[in-house]
Each structure stands twice: as C-alpha cells, then as structure tokens.
Amino acid sequence: MKNTKDLKETAEGSASDLPFKKGNYTIMLAGVALIVAGFIIMTLDKEEFGFGFFGITLGPIVAFVGFMVEFYALLKK
To answer: Do 29 and 23 form a contact (C-beta atoms < 8 A)?
Structure first.
C-alpha cells in the first residue's frame, strides 16, 4: 500500500512531466489571437465578396502567421 509521501511524489513527478510549459501556452494564445485577428481583418473588407486588399491579402497573411506561431509553440521545447 502506498503512503501519502509516495502519492505526493508521483503527483509532483507527473506535473513536472507535462509536455508544455507556461511559455508554450503564452505563445499558443498569441497564435490564436493572430488567427482571430486575421479572420476579423478579412471581414472588414468592403469590396464585393471580400476581393479587396483586406480580404484577399492582409487577412490571410495574418491568419497564416498565426498558424505558424501555433506550429512553433507546439514544437518549442
């Protein structure tokens, strides 16, 4: 039977073995914010069917950068 010390060490060991650290989550939130900002920028376009600069160029670039930031946050050690 395990005592409380063994259970505490097991819990602490599993907590320190989490795959992501605080910095990863911060970068992930920044990536999500960029993705949302990119989609919002795309909706701001006043041209018909969103074929203006915001809808066809700037918004997708910002969203793509957000996805790249997410990719970096997942691979960062």
So the answer is: no
The tens digit of pLDDT for each residue in 33-58 reads: 999 999 999 999 999 988 999 999 99
Measuring CA to CA, which residue among 36, 31, 33 is closest to residue 70? Answer: 31
With pLDDT > 90 as the criterion, what percentage of the chain qualifies? 66
Q: How many CB atoms lie within 10 A of CB 23?
A: 10
Measured CA to CA in angstroms, residue 22 lies from 28, 32, 34, 75, 76 at distances of 10, 15, 19, 14, 11
Assigned token pair, 20: 């992501």
CA–CA separation, 50 and 27 (whole Å): 30
Residue 68 near residue 30, CB atoms below 8 Å? no
